[in-house]
Amino acid sequence: MIDLERRPPIVFVEPRTSLIRLARVDESLGLHLRVAARFAAMARRFAAEVRVRLDGAEADGKSVLDLMCLGAACGAVLELEARGEDAEAALAALSAQLVAPPAEADGRPTD
């Protein structure tokens, strides 16, 4: 009998398991070149395949040009999909990339 109080950790049997997370673009200028480049660079650190969707359009999360073509404005909610062994770690790191950095971090003047 399985003890439901002591559940084993989740194990991915299929290495191509796909996970999806929604993430909001917090950057005031949207998914512009600097943010897209930072996102794609982070995505390339993972073995997982990364796809990004917005309003029916889909982009390769490891391609700066693809990400720019989405035209995601500030406040846009992106669907991030990662498929592969490190999909969960990839989604956690990539959703954090969409949070606007402090103004001082990227050289913008503060008020």
UniProtKB/TrEMBL annotation:
Subcellular localization, as worded in the UniProt entry: Cytoplasm
EC number in record: 2.7.11.-
Residue ranges that the Swiss-Prot or TrEMBL entry lists as coiled coil: none
BP GO terms, sorted: phosphoenolpyruvate-dependent sugar phosphotransferase system
PANTHER family: PHOSPHOCARRIER PROTEIN HPR (PTHR33705), PHOSPHOCARRIER PROTEIN NPR (PTHR33705:SF2)
Family (UniProt): Belongs to the HPr family.
Protein name, UniProt field: Phosphocarrier protein HPr
Taxonomic lineage: Bacteria, Pseudomonadati, Planctomycetota, Planctomycetia, Isosphaerales
